[in-house]
Design goal:
This protein is mainly alpha-helical and 254 residues long. It contains 9 helices and no strands. The protein has 2 domains: 93 residues, no CATH class; 144 residues, no CATH class.
Length: 254
Amino acid sequence: MPFLDHLEELRWRILWSLATLVIATGIGFAIVHYLGVMELLIRPVRPFLAGDQLVYFNPATPFFITLKLGLLVGILLAFPIVLYQVWAFFSPALEAREKKIIVPSLYFGLALFTAGVAMAYFWVLPLALRFLTGFQQAFLEPAIEVGEYLGFVVRLLLAFGLVFELPVVIMILSALGLVTPRFLKEKRRHAIFLIVVLSSLLTPGDIASTFLMIAPMIVLYEVSIVISRFIQRRREEPLQPSAEPPPGTVEAGS
């Protein structure tokens, strides 16, 4: 395809992605407003509130909170279609064996992202709230502002969802030949150090939630080494000579 045709295709795929995002944001706004997304996000903090509701200090806050959550839900809804547009643009440049690895890794990534968000919501968030609200209870009464709380929760959920994508990143890099199992094993100590630093930055700061991010990431890194080894073997299979003579050839002495 000529260069200008590539640009034209890219333009249309960007337009389709933007249109999808706009429509998905409208749907996300309706979901947040009518289907109780706020209740789902606020439920973990209710046991730690003096009353039963979060507070806000600006009359426009409820609307903008709903709009921001609608945009976030819209991005999540539009992501599969946007990802398809990206894939459709770049896939002609990939080899068949690379496609066979990258396509399943995308579904695997969705499952891992969901697992990371679920772990953060059901385990890490309650532990973090219990730890953070356990100080100075004799002198302080919690009046948690809705914007600050939702920002805290969304960052935590997305952080866990994204760090759980580590095996998918390794799968794709291994399929493209950019990393090898040997490289991953040699850099294990550096990776663990980075995992500890990253976990300390992404979690609220309590030991429990930090450890709950460090432990799965180390396990996922080890799983990534196994996945990379498997992919490397698959990449090397076509390069191995066959033990059988090619069809149509006559063996010596026959």
